[in-house]
Design brief:
Length: 442
Amino acid sequence: MTDAAGRLSHMVKQALGRPLPLRLRAWDGSEAGPSTGPVLVIRDRRALHRLAWKPGELGLARAWVAGEIDIEGDLYEGLARISGLVWDRGESETKRPALLRTLTALRDPRNLRLAADVLALAGPALPPAPPREEAVSHRGPLHSLRRDRHAISHHYDVGNDFYSLVLGPSMVYSCAYWEDPSSTLEDAQHAKLDLICRKLGLKPGQRLLDVGCGWGSMVLHAVQHYGVEAVGVTISEEQAALARKRLAEAGCTDRAEIRVQDYREIDDGPFDAISSIGMAEHVGSAQYRAYARILHSLLKPGGRLLNHQIARRPLKNEDAYEIDEFIDRYVFPDGELAPVATTAALLEDAGFEVRDVEALREHYALTLRAWVTNLENHWSEATRLTTPGRARVWRLYMAASALAFEQNNIGVNQILAVRTTTAGNAKMPPTRGQWLYSTTQD
């Protein structure tokens, strides 16, 4: 078999009506396409088997995780060129790559010739087993306690040392706040945590609940800089172990506690303030109303909630929303995104008054690029601490997510909400500047 790249390029052009916008190199050493820019490398024809047996996003993802395809050169430019092959928003309820549409269409009887050509190039074979990094089949009802623990473990219990390479010393796994684009990642994460503390109006002696506390960074910041007493909850055993270690090393165990506990199991309110930072994406649409009501019930009258959450764009037909197969199988099993308006409405339905919404979309793009740089700079160690497949998952999803934020396909927002008193008092200063731009309490 010779000139596999040329044959594949011809198939793509036939299917899309235009050439693939980046160079292609196949397993036989042949190349085709533009002479400059990134190169899409197909290292093994098993990648074609995956696409033949599972056309679409999941087949591509499995080939990437298995190391059978890769992008040489600028990863972001390569992904951007591929993502440029999209349906027009006016023609489709969802923005999906036309390349994936074409791959999925291989099963259509009208495309038997194209499917036959792909199979002829791939050669006869049974479908390859999915890479072991793929999440095992879901267990139990969607967003049950047991299933959520399993989903969270898949993503977060992959080694604290691995996460420290990616996240850096701050150990914060959510969008940073880049007051200056030239800031370090650590400074930007410190600024984000401080912004949240100021929005919550934290004061010495208050009681803070951090839902989905991760490795304890928000709890540590609030205790050390604002003098609060804090409870952090997570359902990741590995996160909790490191968070407790960090609290002990900082001498904060008398003022802070880390629990392995689901938000639905918390029964020792009320709290003066609640932070939920990058956790609500795991809640799911079916449970979100209950999530909002539980947090409302855990707050004192006049208490504030800071809900920091990724949002997707609204669809003309919300019933057309589809879960991203790559993200669901390899990154965040059972994760769901909702438009920011939906989130705000559900918080208000639970009894909250929404007082402030701040969009941080561009900030998350910068954060993700910093994480990708950390991973690439420590690639050998990262693959040793986990697996090469796991490292490839993280590199792809973080780089693709950075582009998604830059292209305004997804966003991230901080919603500040208040549980007002029975008289409707929010117990907030009269101007935004008075509660947002006050200095730290340390």
